[in-house]
Design a protein that fits this description.
With 261 residues, the protein is of the alpha/beta class. The protein has two domains: 196 residues, 2-enoyl-CoA Hydratase, Chain A, domain 1; 48 residues. Helices cover 45% and strands 16% of the residues. The chain is built from ten helices and ten strands. Helix 3 packs across helix 4, helix 4 crosses helix 5 and helix 8 packs antiparallel against helix 9. The longest helix is centred in the N-terminal third of the chain and has 16 residues.
């Protein structure tokens, strides 16, 4: 599938996926949802890709849905999939990605753009980035999980403040709030995130996959059940090639050669 609203670039073990509608602050169109769904499926199955980075071209990461051409509040019975239908299909493909997914937030990140960043494993933001919910500014409702994910990241009261005011906040403020994991200089965002992704990609892909699954499940499980699941997964993991290779490489004082099984 050829892409126009997104760009997919492979840089050795790291794949960069960009929103590519800079003239509209990367507002998401219907076509963008279709392209993202396809790209996430491609990245899920691409063995060479160990880490995925989501970012935006131009002055924004993503300003949310294209209110001019893909208004999710429209409900005319056209018989065609609507914005929320396509967004749900895209999110399903994203959630099937069992590799680390980093949001490299380079500018405005709000509404659906914030929801996309929240779907990533963590956020690295440029110092000048501005992040917020913004749905309230347009009498719109979140449809990409903000009411569920944002309070998990910043707490319920901060999530309410962000959502009710519709304000945009600096990367430094969001670092303090716990939404952003790391803030870097604007000029070094891509280089810093690439270096971080390469570092993560050098780990066992099987180990990262299992860690990600356990971490994502833990919120919804009682503590004893989550701990027991970790023990069962760890016992299974110790029988893998990667776990044994990690131990051998440590003893032999060499770089490990992980195979993902």
């Amino acid at each position: 599938m050829s892409y126009t609203d997104i760009i997919l670039e492979h840089r050795d073990s790291v794949s960069w996926l960009y929103f590519n509608r800079p003239q509209s602050l990367n507002a998401m169109s219907l076509k963008c949802m279709v392209e993202l769904k396809d790209a996430f499926a491609v990245l899920r199955d691409r063995v060479e890709t160990r880490v995925v980075v989501l970012s935006g071209k131009g002055r924004a990461f993503c300003a949310g849905a294209d209110l001019g051409g893909a208004n999710p509040s429209r409900s005319e019975p056209t018989g065609e999939p609507g914005f929320l239908d396509l967004a749900a299909a895209m999110e399903e493909a994203l959630n099937s990605l069992d590799k680390p997914l980093i949001a490299a937030v380079n500018g405005i990140c709000c509404a659906g753009g914030l929801e996309m960043a929240l779907m990533c494993d963590f956020i690295v933001a440029a110092a000048s980035a501005r992040l917020g919910d913004a749905h309230a500014n347009f009498a719109a409702m979140p449809g990409g999980g903000a009411t569920a994910r944002l309070p998990r990241a910043v707490g319920t009261t901060m999530a309410k403040y962000m959502m009710f005011t519709g304000d945009l906040f600096s990367a430094a403020q969001m670092l303090d709030a716990g939404l952003v994991t790391r803030v870097v200089e604007d000029a070094s965002l891509e280089a810093d995130v690439q270096a971080l992704a390469v570092k993560i990609g050098a780990k066992s892909p099987l180990g990262l996959k299992r860690m990600k699954k356990l971490l994502d499940q833990a919120y919804d499980l009682p503590l004893p059940l989550a701990v027991n699941l970790e023990k069962l997964t760890s016992a299974e993991h110790m029988r893998s090639w990667d776990a044994n290779e990690g131990g051998r490489a440590f003893i032999e004082k060499r770089a490990p050669e992980y195979r993902g099984y």
